[in-house]
Amino acid sequence: MTSVEREYAAVAYDTVTGKVARDLQLAAEPEWAAQINDAGSWKITVPIDGAERTRQVREWCVPDKTSVAVLRGDLVCQAGPITPYEPSSDEAVFTVSGKGIWDILDRRALHNAAWNPATGQRLTDPAVDITINGTLPYIAREIVNHQINMQFISGSNLPIDLPTIAAGGTNTRTYHGYDIAPGGQRLRELTQVDNGPDVIFQPYLTMVGGVRYIRHRMLVGNPWLTQPGVDLRFFSRRTLTSLALAGGVRPTATRAIVKGSGNEAGQLYGLASATDLISSGWPLTDDINTSHTDASVQSTLDGWAAANVALASGQSEQWQATVLADADPQLSSYIPGHFATYSVTDHIYLPDGDYRWRLIGVSRGGSTPRDRVDHQLQAVRAD
């Protein structure tokens, strides 16, 4: 069943409090992208005139201090801080871009929320370290908790709703203050280990005392974000308007090596192999990751290697589906991380049938019709 097509809108809001400052007039349809385990992005174009409209834009367009939320009806598609902006040189328009709220965590060092530098305590003091014991989803929550609830440092608060996750579990992570690593980086690394949790910050619009606010729900999977009930289902020539795929878009690997800390004979590393593929005649090719050179826990390195080889040895096709945004299942009924079945008929390349994939991102690009959105699908089949 198709409902009335919803209009796009945008608002500017305070990054720290989430309080909406004003509605924004759009000169073009906005672009946006939401994806699990990533900040995502947005872009809007607003009119300027060299006079009052321009004055208003200059007033609200303040990177980091001000954020923008892109809405479709009451649904907040993406929201987060302003980053670059640029007035057009030949048109009376002004383009503003930004990212999701995760971007702030990508630019904020992770340390104990109880650190008080005013007392002379240094970031290298062991008391500033964080040790978290529990399930991986619980560790993800606590990373963000330390990022947004600092007791003695101003400006740390963000409009993020933390989930309730029971303590327990046998995993341990220690984050040293002297590493001076961003919390967003540590959170992303946690999602990348074998059975690491999906994480997404889902923005939403709420009213408090008659005042509008934008807030962000931190959703954490175990390990996946899954929807209740049955899969989403999209049908060719009805809700599924196109399905594109490309093969060989990323190299296939049958072994993963993750470089950790140390050097020479003391070098730590994680290793995992796709022995089933090698036994079937695939050549030995390596996925070599050098982005974790401060990691010193062998089980963590092995977890990254296992996750990397699972992805790199999977099907190398990349799928993107374009669907109607306001037909059932409507855009407001799902988020990245859910599973979907695409019923395909008369495709030029694919046999007729149902194809089940994991939805890892939802977006609207500049060339996407306004009544549609694009689905980015995990390259590995989710059967």
Q: What's the CATH topology label of the largest domain? A: Phage tail proteins - horseshoe like beta roll fold
- At the fourth level of CATH, the homologous superfamily of the largest domain is Baseplate protein-like domain - beta roll fold
Number of domains: 4
Shape: globular
**Proportion of β residues?**
35-45%
Enumerate the spans where pLDDT stays under 50 for 5 or more consecutive residues.
none
Q: CATH class of the largest domain, please?
A: Mainly Beta
Distance between the termini: 27 Å
Helix content: 10-25%
In the CATH classification, which architecture of the largest domain applies? Roll
* Average pLDDT level: 93
Beta strands, count: 21
Largest β sheet strand count, sense and barrel closure: 13 strands, mixed
Decide which structural class fits the backbone.
alpha+beta
Helix count, DSSP H or I runs of 4 or more residues: 6
H-E string: EEEEHEEEHEHEEHEEEEEEHEHEEEE
Radius of gyration: 23 Å
Relevant terms:
Phage tail proteins - horseshoe like beta roll fold, alpha+beta, 383 residues, 13-stranded mixed beta sheet, 21 strands, globular, 4 domains, 3-stranded mixed beta sheet, 6 helices
Structure description:
- The protein has helices spanning 52-60, 102-105, 136-148, 183-192, 275-279, 298-312; strands at residues 8-14, 20-24, 31-35, 41-47, 66-72, 75-87, 93-99, 130-134, 160-161, 171-175, 199-208, 211-220, 232-235, 240-246, 255-259, 269-273, 286-289, 318-324, 339-344, 353-364, 372-377.
- The chain has four domains: 8-100, Roll (Phage tail proteins - horseshoe like beta roll fold); 117-201, no CATH class; 226-248 and 316-377, Baseplate protein-like domain - beta roll fold (Phage tail proteins - horseshoe like beta roll fold); 255-312.
- It is globular.
- The chain is 15% helix and 36% strand.
- The two termini are 27 Å apart.
